[in-house]
């Protein structure tokens, strides 16, 4: 998949039987003018306001594609019109479906980086997903020592030097996916793993790392 190609970037479900949740992947190249108009029509007034607040076109596109894809796939799963879905913030500030709309307990999480957007769905279990575009991270060792679980930095330093930056980004995706599943921020990075945690690395287009976490 090439996230910048209008055809290849179309939303598709990751075909991995190991995954306990549904994961959709889409690229910014799919956002033709007509699709922008289509997705914009699905957004709430609050979402449109947030869309306008982004200054960079890439940030606006990632937000539009993420929220539009979320509404389309949730509407499909729940048998509801995508534009009528209502969202709220949970106790930890994590976005959730507004239960007052009797929309069920479906759990979701969004992530984006570079030209890629991910959406994870599960009918009941809290889910978190993260994606990172592969890139140089000059200060990765200091970040790893500060935030990764015990032994994480040492495991990375044991890798060949050329594999260490990519290995760091994969571990960072795992950390972020867990924090997003729990709804906690980086302040909880050193906490013990939550009970029942499942963690899966994702097979994404070349140049991207990603992970999925379920509680």
Features:
4-stranded antiparallel β-sheet; 215 residues; Ribosomal Protein L22, Chain A; alpha+beta; 9 strands; 3-stranded antiparallel β-sheet; 6 helices; globular; 2 domains
Layout of strands and helices, then pairs:
Layout: E1 12-13, E2 22-27, H1 33-40, H2 45-53, H3 57-78, E3 87-89, E4 95-97, E5 107-113, E6 116-122, E7 127-133, H4 140-147, H5 152-157, H6 164-182, E8 198-201, E9 208-214
Antiparallel strand pairs: 1-2, 2-6, 3-4, 5-6, 7-9, 8-9
Overall number of strands: 9
What would you give as the CATH superfamily of the largest domain? 4'-phosphopantetheinyl transferase domain
Helix content: 25-40%
Major β-sheet profile: 4 strands, antiparallel
Question: How many structural domains in the coordinates?
Answer: 2
Q: What is the H-and-E element order?
A: EEHHHEEEEEHHHEE
Q: Which of globular, elongated, flat, extended, rod-shaped describes the shape? A: globular
CATH architecture of the largest domain: Alpha-Beta Complex
Radius of gyration: 17 Å
